[in-house]
């Protein structure tokens, strides 16, 4: 089960972006757009990981300013 760490920077607060994207992903018509936004924002993150994170199929934690989560294979 792979674990991912999405880092924040001075310009990007990752926990806020993830919360925003999860909220938007709740609307079925917006899902394709948010999958694209998140896979382009975090290009090393597989689409399956994005889907599990945004659909809340897996929990995430915030460590310092980073988002950490483990996906199901």
Keywords:
alpha+beta; 73 residues
Low-confidence stretches: none
Number of domains: 1
Average of the residue pLDDT scores: 94
Indicate the proportion of strand residues. 15-25%
Compute the number of helices: 3
Radius of gyration: 11 Å
Span from first to last CA?
Answer: 6 Å
Helix content: 40-55%
- What is the number of beta strands? 3
Main sheet: strands, sense, barrel = 3 strands, antiparallel
Specify the overall morphology. globular
Written as H for each helix and E for each strand, in order along the chain, the element string is: EHHHEE
Structural class given helices, strands, pairing?
alpha+beta
Spatial sequence of strands, sheet with the most strands? 1-3-2
Describe the structure.
With 73 residues, the chain is α+β, with helices and mostly antiparallel strands. The chain has one domain (3-70). The chain is built from three helices and three strands. It has helices spanning 14-25, 31-41, 47-54; strands at 3-6, 60-63, 66-70. A three-stranded antiparallel beta sheet has the order 1-3-2, covered by helices on one side. A hairpin with a 2-residue loop joins strand 2 and strand 3. The mean pLDDT is 94.
């Amino acid at each position: 089960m792979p674990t991912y760490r999405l880092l924040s920077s001075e310009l990007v607060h990752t926990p806020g972006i993830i919360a925003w994207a999860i909220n938007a992903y709740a609307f079925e018509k917006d899902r394709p757009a948010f999958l694209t936004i998140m896979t382009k924002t975090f290009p090393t993150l597989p689409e399956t990981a994005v889907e599990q994170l945004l659909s809340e199929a897996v929990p995430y934690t915030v460590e310092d300013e980073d988002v950490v989560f483990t996906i199901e294979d």
